[in-house]
Amino acid sequence: MTAYSTTTLAWGMPVKADILGAHLAAYLECKPVVQTLRLCHRFGKGPQAFITNLPLEIVDLVEGMLFDESRKTHRMEWGKEFRCYEDMCAPVEHYTEDRLEELRQDMALSGCDCGGECLDGHEERFDEMLGDLEERYEVHFSRFHLWEERVERSGDFKMFNDLLKADFGLEASLSNHFLDDFVKTTICHLILPTRSIVEDKFVGEQGFDTTSSFIISPAHCTPRSRKEKARFKRTLKTLHLASYVHPTQMKTTLPRHSHMGVPEKIDGCEKIVAGCTYSKALERTKWPKLILVNHFVAH
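The structure corresponding to this sequence follows.
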């Protein structure tokens, strides 16, 4: 087995992977329409060019409506896949409305004396049935693998990284983490483009692909120039993003002494709860910060 390790130090901020992907998909979808709208509003000519008489505020509202509707559609699609990837999905999420109604009627007819006229009292048993059906697992694992394909280096995020660099001067750094032996999640950072600072190659016995990231001096670091900081502000505003620190990132990196009230010694569920508390507090601090990203690939 040959293994490669690369380490990068960059200015960055954490964002939710599925939200970034969905909002970039919406941005890419609406971009041609918005550009045409702006050109028509500014340079339209002729007796039918009524759009040129509209106030700029109205044009901005139209743009916002286009983006909002597209984001909503893509968030549903990306969100379903990501919840299945994290195993945070509910059984009911794997069925269409028509299929759910069909299954409700089937259950009512087979287990109720009213001939299917009443479904009261069956919801708990109905949820159990949804979780046991084979079709639920077919949809679940299909979405799981679709998400894996999205975050692969040749997947959707490869195209989105090109878009991020061209339009916003940033790139997305993705890392897959095991939450336990079977459940995984994807951690995402928006970072300033930079080169790897350390590269290494060595030989081992088992192959895998993983990435880890660490925040350096989170309380005091700021980018070197206002232009670099402005890239993040513009990206967050245009794509409607917010900082997001996954609670599991805090499970083994909680500070020994914290003004946020996190205990020094935490185990089990208490550690996860404290991780959630600290991650939310960390989200509210100033971003971007210096982040050390280590990527390890072994074949």
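The CA atoms of residues 82 and 147 lie 6 Å apart.
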